[in-house]
Every structure is written in structure tokens, then in C-alpha cells.
Amino acid sequence: MTARRSGADLFEAARLYYVEGARQSEIADRLHVSRSNVSRMLRDAREQGVIRFQLSYPAERDALWERKLLRAHKSLKAAVVVAEPPPEARIDPLDVASEAAAEWLVEHLDDGQRVSIAWGTSVRAAVERVCARRGYGVDVSQLGGDIDVLPTRSNHDVVRELAAKLGGTYSYANVPAVVGSAAEARELCADARVAYQLDRACEADVAIVGVGAFDRGSNRILLDRARMSWTERERARARGVVGEICGRFYDRAGRSVELPVDERIIGGRTESIANTVIIAAGAHKATAVAGALRGRMVTTLVCDRQLARAVMSTG
At what angle do helices 121-129 and 93-108 cross, to 10 degrees? Predict the structure, then answer.
């Protein structure tokens, strides 16, 4: 009967085979086992989760739609539009857009820059796909307070992950994005350390944010956490609210709309940030993204072609 190999042995066999590209015969010599044992070790490594495969659909850029967006919206410095995967691939377009956003960030990031990130599904997806080949010495901050879009992971976890991947430091205000009352929000923001961190995040070189389509997806999570009633939501719609960025609501023209719920949200501002990168996918985001473009809230847009087409057709 073959002895059970330790996890460390399985890891080393997998590393040599998949990372270094060593042949199984070479691995057998280095680990002092037979070649048949190497084959079994690689099989066991897959079965025990030592090896995990992740397929990334190639993000093919569409230069035509990029040019259309740049011509239509003069405040845009850059547009990255990726072709949506075919239906048979069964891939979420956000996966492809977030892959493109991760590649854009690594390609355009300068050493020592300050990066702020907001909460949201698209930002988290992009950070998960960042793969830097060297350290950048950046400083990563959280825009606004913390919120867990996923029940097992807060946005502070995402901040730490991005800093680790880019070889940098991180900081954030240790406060929630949503509190129970306006008085509680004022008390938290009056703390000198909290105020410093919130202000610092708003003075970054680059901001990575998502766009919340009002009362959908991650924005609905925010509204639910803020205990925004159905009546309040209907009143917001009546006032023309279509989107939200970092806890700030706006209408189709990109004009800020003040709501009662604002007093219970500890958000962030991006007006002073030189490059605000928005990541979004899907035609359902078109009205919110178009409003952000009209309001000059975005300087770099990363999206899928379906969304780009829908934005251009939004009156």
C-alpha cells in the first residue's frame, strides 16, 4: 500500500510541475520518488485542493466603441471596452470587465501612488484578478466606511488584499459605511483619526469605484443596510435618482441629489482625485453610468461592449 504523502510534498510536486515546468521524471529525481508516484501526487494534489485551476476568459478590447465613448464624453481620459463572451461560454460579463480593469491598473500604476477603492461587487472582482509581477510601493485606502457586500468578506479585506498584491501599505477608517442615525454618523466622523483617514482617501492619485444602479444589486444592499423605506425609495426615484457612487446619489444629468438617507451613510468623495476609474458591466447599468459621465465623475471607464452600446443610446 502506498504511503500517504504530506500536503507539503504534494505542494512541491505541483509547484515544480505547473510553475517551474519540470518534467515528471525530473520531479521524481528531485523528490526521490518514482515517476508513477509523481503522477499520483499530482492527482492527489488536484483532489485535495492543493491545485486550483482558474480559467480567465480573454478580455478582447473593442477599439471602435472606445473611440465612440471618448468622442461623446470629453471628460474621459481613457475608455476600456471589452467584447462580451458568447452566451455558450456562460461567463458573467463582469468577470471579463473586471479582468480588463485589473490589467489596466497594473499597466498604468506608477510607483508610490496612492490608490483609494470603494465598496462594491465590481471593485472586489477586479482586486481578485490583480496579478502584479513586482511591487509598486503604493498606499491603498478605503473610500468611506466599510460594508460587506459578501457576508464573509468586508471591504477592508479587499483593501488589504490589493495592498498585498501591489506590494504596498494600506489604511482605512475603522467605521461602517452605514450607521443607525445622523447623530451617530456625526459622532464617528468627528473623531480626529477617522476624519483624517476619510479625508486622506479622498486625496488619492487613483480611485477605483463601481456604480450603483439605484435600488439594484450592491446599491440595494446599501439601501437595505441604511433601512431606507419603500416610501423613501419611491421619493428618490421621483426626484430622478438613477445612481450612486461612494454613497453619493445623483440623477440622469449627473447632478447630486441629497436624500434623508445621506445622513446615515459614511461615504467618500472623488472630486479631488485625478483619475477616477469606474468598473461596470451589463446594460442595466447604462442610465447610472451615463449620469456619472454627464456629471464628470469618471475619467477612466472600464466596461463591456453591451454597456458601452447602451450608454451611447441613452438620451
Answer: 60
Q: Check whether 4 has a pLDDT greater than 90.
A: no
In DSSP notation, 256-306 reads B---GGGGGB-----TT-SEEEEE--SGGGHHHHHHHHHTT--SEEEEEHH
| Nearest residue to 225 via CA among 259, 197, 266, 187 | 266
Q: Is the pLDDT of residue 286 over 90?
A: yes
Q: Where are the beta strands (DSSP E) in 118-247?
A: 139-142, 169-171, 206-210, 212-213, 241-245
Is there a contact between 172 and 144 (Cβ–Cβ < 8 Å)?
Answer: no
Question: Is residue 11 packed enough to be buried (19+ CB in 10 Å), middle (13-18) or exposed (0-12)?
Answer: middle
C-alpha 205/C-alpha 289 separation (Å) is 21
Average pLDDT, the chain: 90
Sheet holding 78-82: strands in order across?
Answer: 78-82, 300-304, 275-279, 206-210, 114-117, 139-142, 169-171
Give the count of beta carbons closer than 10 Å to the beta carbon of residue 102: 25
Phi and psi at 246, nearest 5°, equal: 55, 35
Check whether 1 has a pLDDT greater than 50. Answer: no
- Of 7, 29, 91, nearest to 57 (Cα)? 91
Query: What is the DSSP pairing of strand 169-171 with strand 206-210?
Result: unpaired
In sequence order, what are the residues at sequence separation of 6 or more whose Cβ sits closer than 8 angstroms to the Cβ of residue 140? 114, 115, 116, 117, 159, 162, 163, 166, 168, 169, 170, 171
Measured over the CA atoms of residue 65, residue 252, residue 214 and residue 124, the dihedral's sign is: positive
Q: CA 245, 250, 254: angle at the middle one, nearest 5?
A: 100
CA distance 274 to 1: 64
